[in-house]
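WARN retry 2 of 3 for item q-0093 after timeout on previous attempt; input resubmitted unchanged.
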Amino acid sequence: MRGRTGTEHGTVHRGRGPLAAALLAGALGLTLSGCAGFLVPAGEGEPGPTPTDPYRVHADTLTSPFPSAPVTAAGRPPAGRPTTPTPTPTPTGRADCPSSGVVVDMGEVEPALGHRAVGLTLTNCGSKPYPVHGYPSVRALDEAGDPLPVKVNPGSSYMGTDRGPQQVVLEPGRKMYALLAWVSTPTGGDLIEGDALEIAPAPGLEPRVFPLEGSDVRLLDELNMTAWRTTR
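OK item q-0093 returned
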């Protein structure tokens, strides 16, 4: 009985050994697969972060240059929350502001293939709106400050196109622009050497005198000017 029992036990033991191993392996496999997420180090097996493109700007990160106010679903500011008004330009407060309230400035003379051009700026330096319509008033002067017989033409030139006068009410602090051009080569006709330009916002208003620096810009055939306009 002891031997048979041993044999039976042995038989049973041999029969249960492979089965137990298989069951154990299966259980371990399920356990490992269920815990795979815990066994993988953090970050492995997952897509990495998208690299940042230094040349790409997202619109939601930009700051608007315009003041904003909260709005309702209908697109209107909520009651009691008025929008921020646009600031009104203020007078320049410059010491050379004449009694008319408008003043002219002249930029640098620009050369191009024997042609010369200079930008003029009209500024409302006063405290009241000023109506503008027409052309600057321009004269060429000699070294004594006397007018020269140089013709002045309203209209287009090689250096710029005249779009005609604009009827504009120029608010305090606002500016308008015009272009003055001439030819400084003998092919332009009879040339006169001028020492300065006398420029006023309009005929009858206070002029300013601007010297012409350099011999290459002092030779004048005739002057062509555009009307005052709100853009350069």
